[in-house]
Amino acid sequence: MNHPLVKKILFSEDQIDKRVSELTDEIAEYYKKNNLKENTVLLIGLLKGCVPFMANFLKHFKYECQTEYMVVSSYLGGTKTSGEPKINLDLNISVKDKHILIVEDIIDSGITLDYIKKYLYFKGAKEIKIVTLLDKPEGRKIELKADWNGFKVENEFLIGFGLDYEERLRNLPYVAVCDVTKLKDWKW
């Protein structure tokens, strides 16, 4: 049974798993062709939303990698971005001369990822690529494209598979459109 705040399921657990497997094959092939120094890519997950996607990604990824995480906030618990990214948890390793793959749950405005890319290049990263499970081009406030994306989505408020409303609903095993008409009077 679906959660009462689910208006419609967009992508099931099986659809997500299949698409992530395809993405990891494409990405591993890209890195194999580019003969990276040390044959390793640094995956950086942006917490908290990336957790289910990152776990699924790692399960399928057939290329040498390291993993790190950052907490960068631009959403303040609601349904709209504040537009001002802030690094709450930085990396514990140097990114100098590294090939980085940012693993993100969704690209909406693009502001946070643009900020992170500039920050990582400033820190000396050699190359930065982006993979996102969901791409919402209509939400863009700046010019930014993912190098790989799982699914393109409409400009709706989404929940599940890492996407939240007020830090809840991340654990739904699918991606769904939230019934925002219920949020005003919703009691947890």
UniProtKB/TrEMBL annotation:
It catalyses: GMP + diphosphate = guanine + 5-phospho-alpha-D-ribose 1-diphosphate; IMP + diphosphate = hypoxanthine + 5-phospho-alpha-D-ribose 1-diphosphate. GO terms for cellular component: cytosol. It comes from the Bacteria. Pathway: Purine metabolism; GMP biosynthesis via salvage pathway; GMP from guanine: step 1/1; Purine metabolism; IMP biosynthesis via salvage pathway; IMP from hypoxanthine: step 1/1. It is found in: Cytoplasm. The keyword Flavoprotein does not apply. Its cofactor is Mg(2+). One of its GO terms (biological process) is GMP salvage. Its main location: cytoplasm. Residues 22-165 form the Phosphoribosyltransferase domain. One of its GO terms (molecular function) is nucleotide binding. Keywords: Cytoplasm, Glycosyltransferase, Magnesium, Metal-binding, Nucleotide-binding, Purine salvage, Transferase. The keyword Nucleotide-binding applies. Its EC number is 2.4.2.8. Belongs to the purine/pyrimidine phosphoribosyltransferase family. NCBIfam families: HGPRTase. This is Hypoxanthine phosphoribosyltransferase. It comes from Spiroplasma taiwanense CT-1. The lineage of its organism: Bacteria, Bacillati, Mycoplasmatota, Mollicutes, Entomoplasmatales. The gene is hprT.
